Each structure stands twice: as structure tokens, then as C-alpha cells.
Amino acid sequence: MQEPVGECRDCGKTIFCDGGFLCGVVLENHELRCFDCDEKAKNEEQA
Ligand SMILES: [Zn+2]
């Protein structure tokens, strides 16, 4: 069962919690980010 938890702070996509598994990342400031944007952010940090 999927429950909407919030929106990705970068792309605005709704992030769901799927059976207790969050389909995204919670940032230190409690904002949410989807995996796609989190990957992008990580890549940019490394670059
Ligand atoms: Zn996103």
C-alpha cells in the first residue's frame, strides 16, 4: 500500500511510502527528495 508522504523539493514529484519503505530520501532539514534528484545531487557533489 502506498501513502503519499510529501513532494520532492527539487522536481515536485509526489513521494510515497510503500509498505513502510520510503521511495525517496529525507534530507537533514527534513525536506524530501526523490531518488532521481538525489542521484543527480550526489553526482553534482562529486563533479
Ligand atoms: Zn525529484
Helix-strand sequence: EEEEEH
Mean pLDDT: 94
How many structural domains in the coordinates?
1
Main sheet strand line-up: 1-2-3
* Count of strand segments: 5
Structural class: alpha+beta
Specify the overall morphology: elongated
First-residue to last-residue Cα separation: 37 Å
Note poorly predicted spans: none
- Give helix % range: 25-40%
Count, helices: 1
Small molecules bound in the structure, each named once: zinc ion
Residues in β-strands, percent: 35-45%
- Radius of gyration (CA) equals 11 Å
Task: Report the sheet with the most strands, covering strand number, pairing sense and barrel closure.
Answer: 3 strands, antiparallel
Care to describe what's here?
By secondary structure, the protein is of the alpha+beta class. It has one domain (about 1-45). Helix content is about 25%, strand content about 35%. It is built from one helix and five strands. The protein has one helix spanning about 35-45, and strands at about 1-5, 15-20, 20, 25, 30-35. The strands form two sheets. The chain has a three-stranded antiparallel sheet with strand order 1-2-3, with no helix packed on it. The chain has a two-stranded antiparallel ribbon with strand order 4-5. β2 and β3 (about 20) form a beta hairpin. Zinc ion binds near residues 8, 10, 13, 34 and 36.
SSE map:
Layout (H helix, E strand, L loop, with lengths): L1 E6 L6 E5 L2 E2 L2 E2 L5 E2 L1 H12 L1
Antiparallel strand pairs: 1-2, 2-3, 4-5
Bound molecules: zinc ion.
The site of zinc ion has 8 residues, from helix 1.
Give me a quick take on this structure.
This protein has 47 residues and is of the alpha+beta class.
